[in-house]
Each structure stands twice: as structure tokens, then as C-alpha cells.
Amino acid sequence: MCRVDGRSYWFGGYFGAFDRRLMIEHAGAARADRFDETLGGRVPLAGARLVSVYDDDRAAAEAFGATFDVPVAATLEEFAEGMDGVIVPFPAGGDARDYRAVAPLVERGIPLFLDRIILEQADVLRGLLAEGQDRGVPLHVTCFMRYLDECLRPADDAGAPVRWVTATASGDPVGYGADLLDLIDALMGCRPVSVINVGDDGGDVLRIGYERGRHAILQLIRDTHVPMVVAAGGADWHRSVELDGSQFHRGAMRQFEAFVRAMDTREPPVAADRILTHANLLRFAESRRIGVVHSLS
User: Fold this and answer.
1) What distance, in Å, lies between the first and last C-alpha atoms of the chain?
2) Of the spans 33-37, 89-93, 183-187, which averages the highest pLDDT?
3) pTM for this entry
């Protein structure tokens, strides 16, 4: 684990047992309780385990290390020795949102899990992805919501083509917008080709055109809390679900399973060009150019 924040504790629980008292102290009772409720004390990814933690903030690293009983590395170089893969949580804001801090790990050929697209560093991300491709190093840049697609597919035909998706949430393109775009992409299974924002001061309404004439609507409401609801449909079926948090553990577990597979196959779960297309789309949405059709091809 490279970098420690609240999500580090959430992510760590999938790979190793933790001290419940310390988990509550550093990450809150709700997070500790959710692991007990959904996983019954089991470690879901027993085939992979935490072996080290590093953070520039030594105290934060030591708190995490004590919670999960893993050693704390004194330097990034020490941390990288013998590592099969590294999980890097990034915060929602602040100076720690810096892809460049983990570039040395890519240069050493270590697969990385990067848990969000940082729009203001899209050019740095492009360079990291290119470096990873040159070295055969997979970079996993996705959100756990991508792996909730199974909740929206027909139970009797999981491979049925999805022709449309609608998704509504509170927030903005940088937050839940990026997360839901990942889920939409998993459902669509083809490239986005254009986007238009038909929103107003109250929020963004993105109509995203995809290959094969498919489309998605992503609605992000500002300054008002609304349920997060996603619907998908095909030729003769449709399903909808409210994402209320109870599904998030399942999505996170599938996400880390995909990362562990990527360490073996050396193939990223989502191709670099798709990640950069999403960054392009989100940057356009953030610009709030209402009524303008933006090509993604």
C-alpha cells in the first residue's frame, strides 16, 4: 500500500485481517462494521496479501501498519523491493493528488492500482500509461463501480447487448461522474464517440453517444442530494438499481480480483486509450460548455 488515507483502510481489508479497535480509531466504526456484516471476518483475497506500506507521513504509515500488522518502509525505494503490485489511493483534493509520486514504481516494472482519474494531471497520466505499455506493466485506473455491472444485466442472459444506460447522482464530473462513467463503460462494452452537455446551473446532463448507435445519459445534480440510480436496457429487457452503498463491497472485491489477475496476465483491465478517452470526456464535462457537441474520436 503506497499512501495512506481513509480508503487505504477500506482497500486493505480485502487483503488481510485487521485490528478492529485500530480500524475504528483510524477509519471509523462504520467501515469496520461493514466488513463484519458483508464478509463475516473472512479475508476475501487470501491469495494476495499486504506485505508493506509506505507514506511520506511516517505516522500515517505506522498507524496503517499497526492496524494490518504489516511492516512500514522507510523510503519508496525500500518499499518497491520485491513488490508484485502496488495499490495507490489518491485523495479527492490537495497536494497529494500527484501521479508523478508513483512514476518510479512504473519505471521499476511494478503493476499499479490507481483508484481514480485526476483530471488536472491527465497529461502526466498519459505519460504513465505510455511508460507502462512500453514496459509491459499494467496500470489499473478504474473505480469499483465499474464492477457493479452485473447488478444491471439480465439474470438469465448476462451477455445480452446493452443499448442504453441512464445514471443519476449528486455531485460533479470529477467525483461520482467519473465513477458512474466507469460503470456505463462496462455496460456498453464499446467506445464513446461524442458527448453534449444539456444541463444548466442546477447540474450537468451529459448525453454520450457510443459506437453502434447506442447512448447513455449521465445526470449530475449539484447542491441537492438525490438517490444514485442507474438503469440499463436492451432490445427487450431493462433493469434498474439504486446504488445505496450495500453493493459497494461486492464491486470493490471484483475490482481487486481484476487487479490481481492483471499482475499475472500483465494486461490492464481497461485499455489505456479508453482511460484517456474518459479523461477527455470528463474534462469536457467539467468545462461546462452547455449545448456544444464534443467529439471523442
Assistant:
1) 36
2) 183-187
3) 0.85
